[in-house]
Each structure stands twice: as structure tokens, then as C-alpha cells.
Amino acid sequence: MWLIYCLVNFLLYKKTMTKVAMIGKIHEEGWRVLNNAGYEVFEINDFSKDNLKKQLFDVDAIGLRTTNIDSDILANCHNLKIISRHGVGYNNVDLNYLNNHNQALAITGTSNAASVAEHVMTMFLYLAKNIKKSDELVKSGGFKKQGILPDFYELYRKKIFILGFGRIGQAVAKRCLGFETEVFVYDPFINEEIINKKNCKKIEFHKGIEIADYITIHMPLNEKTKNLINKDNLTKMKSETILVNTARGGIVNEKDLYWALKNKKIHAAGTDVFEIEPPDQDNPLFQLDNILMSPHNAALTLECRKRMAIEVAENIVFYIEKNNNLNKSNIVNITTLK
Predict the structure, then answer these.
(1) For labelling, which of 75, 96, 156, 275 has a CA lying 20 to 30 Å from the CA of 223?
(2) Is position 296 annotated as part of the catalytic site?
(3) Residue 254 annotated among the catalytic residues of the structure
(4) Which residues contact 96 (CB under 8 A, 6 or more apart)?
(5) Is 277 a catalytic residue?
(6) How many domains does the chain have?
(7) pTM score, two decimals?
(8) Which one from 175, 296, 305, 307 is the annotated catalytic residue?
């Protein structure tokens, strides 16, 4: 009788245990949070639509890296309560479907600001100082030929233009101010008082691109921001301007950027994101020596990966358990909390 009692209770426990699918790898610290909550967690690395439909059939929650989750897949997720993104962007999720079915979408809003801000500063300095050319000169035996190097520049007291003033934009501003720069901000959704409190100045977009020595983008990709940086706006920038995009591909028109860099309309550019990811190997930007590229990894420092994994997991646990520790600002579709 005791064995039967234990078996029945085990089966009931298994039936009611919260089930979580992790689509893509996350740091083990995130797994620890979910395991400590008593959840059944498994990892999916076959991202084909057929497999996702099969594996996600009865999950309560999804931890998601970069795989696309469309309405066709979501329609097969009969128990789904929340998707928790490993990052702040959510272009790879059908938000309208989630809204219509009262399913939550969470982001890791507090984890990646420092890492991305440091990446921006790295690109600024690398491009401003012509580090690659200096390195190549020394390694080729040209140590005493410093004079052949092109001009390079300082950040000191320069004008920085930040497009988007969320957590990442504010983190960049804080670091730029350490170089005694003058920081200007364009963000129609942020109150000017908040910008002023961060020792920055609100400015209109077209004025900002005209006066900036350095420009950094921290906006979502949508109908209003797509191709925001185009040929027309690039021609309004200073010839010394350095443009960095660690936000989303498509905000900067790549064909127009190639034209501007090729014809020295701006000094240089850095990009962590592309219109098509991964970019095609025949992308003309690859031919240029005044652009610095990285594979959409600005937020993937070890420290940030740990923080994001924990936040992904905590979003799930706190939402499902209705825990007061839930960071409500991480829930994109906040109405699901009602």
C-alpha cells in the first residue's frame, strides 16, 4: 500500500510540476534558480518549427534566446503562461499573439546595460584612436613611422549624441561624462527633467546629428526607426563623426552607410548588429577598413550572461508564483499581470 501511495503522489506531482523549456543555452546560474523552485526544466537545441511544436506542447514557460517564436508555434503551446527573453529585444516573438491570449512576455531589462555601454566605449575609442593601424604598423617593423598614420582623435570634450535614453543609453552617458564630454539625447519618450538630472541635454534628432562627434544608437527597431540613419541624414553629419549601432540592424541603412564610409562622408562606424543576421559574406561593408564589426555579442560578457540567465529564470518563477519580487518593468505586456 505504501508503494502505491508513493507512486500515486509522484504521478500527481509530475502532472502538476511547472514545466519550463529553455530554447538555447543559458548560464548554469539560471538553471539553478529554476531547479531550486522545483520546476522541471529542459533545453531545446533543435530550433526547427516541427520540433518546437512538439517540445513546447505542454510547457508553462519558455526561456528564449534568439529563436523565432511565431503564432504558428504559439498556437501549439496550450499551457503557456510566460516567455522570458534572454535580452531586451523581442522582435523574434509574436507579441500580438501573446497579448490576445493573455500570455506574458518578459525581458532581462536590468542585466545588460553595463556590458553594452562598455562595448560602445570600446568601439568609440578603437575607431577614434586608429588602434588597428597602429598595431599593424608596430608588428610590421614600422615603429618609427608614426607619421604615416592617419589622424586620430580624443573623446575629451567632444559632443556625444545618444539616440534612445533607456538603461543602456543612460549607462553610455555616464561613461561618456567621465571623459568630460557634452552629451546630447534624443528620446521622445523620456522627460527632459530626467535627461537633465543625468547631466545631459535634450536635443532634436536633426540638430543632434549635425553637431555630434560621436553617435550611439539605443532604440528598438520599428516602423519609425527603420532606416532612421539613411543617406540623407548621413550627409548632415560631420566628416569626423563616428557612428556606433549596438541596438538593432535596420535602424542604419547598410547600403547608405557603405556609401558614407566609402566616400569619407563620416570618419568611421562600429556595428554589433546587421539587417540580416548573420550577414552575407558578400556584404560590401566587409571591404572597408573604417568600420568595426562584432557578432551581436555586445551584451555577452561572462558577467552579463550570468545576470541575464538569473533574470530570465526569476522572471519566470516570480511571475508564475505571483511573487512580489517580480520586476514589473520587465513585463512588456503589463496587462497580463491583472
Answers:
(1) 75
(2) yes
(3) no
(4) 71
(5) yes
(6) 2
(7) 0.86
(8) 296
